[in-house]
């Protein structure tokens, strides 16, 4: 990801970092290194990973109330 600030608001980053038990700096680094993804809505997430109960290729994922989905890859 080239510029995290273009995709993620700082408030979203802080909220999600507590879910993943990381600090915002760690989250930013994971996003920049491609080890974490952000999807703007559920549809784009389902296009990539499908609709399943569990996602074996993901370490964890989190959906915000604005529809954005953050995923942490294994």
What would your notes on this structure say?
By secondary structure, the chain is an alpha+beta fold. The protein has one domain. The chain has three helices and three strands. It has helices at 10-20, 24-32, 42-49, and strands at residues 36-39, 58-63, 69-73. Strand 2 and strand 3 (69-73) form a beta hairpin. It is globular, with a radius of gyration of 11 Å.
- Sum up the overall morphology in one term: globular
Structural class: alpha+beta
Mean pLDDT: 93
Percent of residues in helices comes to 25-40%
By DSSP (H or I, 4+ residues per run), the number of helices equals: 3
Number of strands: 3
The value of Rg in angstroms is 11 Å
Distance between the ends: 17 Å
Major sheet details: 3 strands, antiparallel
User: In total, how many domains does the architecture comprise?
Assistant: 1
Into which percentage range does the β-strand content fall? 15-25%
Strand order across the largest sheet: 1-3-2
Task: Name the helix and strand elements from N-terminus to C-terminus, one letter apiece.
Answer: HHEHEE
Poorly predicted residue ranges: none
């Amino acid at each position: 990801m080239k510029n995290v600030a273009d995709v993620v608001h700082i408030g979203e980053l802080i909220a999600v970092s507590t879910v993943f038990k990381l600090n915002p700096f760690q989250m930013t680094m994971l996003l920049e290194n491609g080890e974490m993804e952000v999807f703007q809505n559920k549809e784009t997430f389902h296009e990539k990973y499908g609709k399943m109960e569990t996602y074996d290729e993901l370490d964890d994922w989190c959906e915000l109330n604005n529809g954005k989905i953050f995923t942490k890859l294994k």
